[in-house]
Amino acid sequence: MARTDYYSILQVARDASEDDVRSAYRKLARQYHPDVNTAEDAAVRFKEVTEAYEVLSDPQRRQRYDMFGSTDGTAGFGIDDLFNTFFGGEMRRRERGPMRGADLRMQIEIELIDSVRGGERVIKVPRLETCERCDGDGAEPGSTATTCATCSGKGEVRQVQQSVFGRFVNVSACPRCGGAGKTVDKICTRCRGEGRERKERDITLTIPAGIDDGQQLRVAGEGEAGMRGGPSGDLYILIRLTEHARFKREGDDLVHVLRISPAQAALGDELDVPTIEGDHAKIKVPAGAQHGQAVRLRGKGVPHLGAQGRGDQLVYLDVVIPRTLTKEQKIIYQKLHAASGIPDQAEDDRGVFDRIKDAFI
């Protein structure tokens, strides 16, 4: 089979760091998420980048992928490919024995304060669970099990094909017993013999402090139930942050805009500003503050995910020019204009551009 190039999908180099992989995934996940991208292939592309991120963000899976071209420790070209090359057919894999349940993927929205504080949330997960009536074996309680007559209890059937290259044996699950090696005289009336039933389960999800938009949580064993005694799959939760009215997240820093008057900018002031956790902190507006200048409140940002410490709160100053003036204000501004004159136009404009933060106004 053709090898999937996860590095190409995420558009990163093979020696990309974990941060590079995470950054690339967040960018592409936002671009192709079906909620914002209506293109026909958006859902497919979103699934591809998510799968690539799951592999390359896990050190062990990434190492296996780099060595073998897959994540299960097998080479990317196997007997199935050889069979397809010569005969144009497909060699079916054995399905006998326990089978792991499918992984599930969901998306939830959380508030910015939730990413700061962390905590727990109960979510409803629709999934296939082991049938309670038959305990997963697909047989009605009290029914009689007998050895499958088609496969003689082996759970598999073999077909031999002769070719110029020799004999090829195609092994597949028994179509009568489904690989179990036995049949029952009466299948479970609840799950109709599948051994699983669909339910909606409440799962308590732990949200770590510092998690960001586009990141993913893995809840082991909370996917769909396995078959024939196999383990359950995992549950993957994609995190989306809703917009906040007064704060914007940039990495682990929080951005807030504070409006001040020209007089406060010229003379300086000491003001209260809100923080994300609901209290207030004092900042000093320096005399001569410029529009777009930032004042930093250390340790008032988002906790570092999985590490000590937290980011800062950046307070950008928005110098508000009055659109209309009272008669008294007009006189004051006329006197100020006469005293201060016209600003020097020789200043390097690049410094001015660096101070303007229109994105936060």
Note down, in words, how this protein is organized:
This protein is α+β, with helices and mostly antiparallel strands and 361 residues long. Among the domains are: 1-77, Helix Hairpins (Orthogonal Bundle); 254-360, HSP40/DNAj peptide-binding domain, CATH 2.60.260.20. The chain contains 9 helices and 15 strands. The protein has helices at 6-10, 18-32, 42-56, 59-68, 79-87, 112-117, 262-267, 327-340, 349-355, and strands at residues 104-110, 119-130, 145-147, 156-163, 166-173, 182-184, 196-207, 216-219, 235-241, 248-250, 253-260, 269-274, 280-285, 294-297, 313-319. The strands form 6 sheets. It has a 4-stranded mixed beta sheet. A 3-stranded mixed beta sheet has the order 1-9-8. A two-stranded antiparallel sheet has the order 2-7. Strand 4 and strand 5 form a beta hairpin. Helix 2 runs antiparallel to helix 3 (42-56). The longest helix is centred in the N-terminal third of the chain and has 15 residues, at 18-32. The relative contact order is 0.11. Mean pLDDT is 83; it is low at 74-95 and 356-361.
In short:
This protein is an alpha+beta fold and 361 residues long. The protein has helices spanning 6-10, 18-32, 42-56, 59-68, 79-87, 112-117, 262-267, 327-340, 349-355, and strands at 104-110, 119-130, 145-147, 156-163, 166-173, 182-184, 196-207, 216-219, 235-241, 248-250, 253-260, 269-274, 280-285, 294-297, 313-319. The longest helix is centred in the N-terminal third of the chain and has 15 residues, at 18-32.
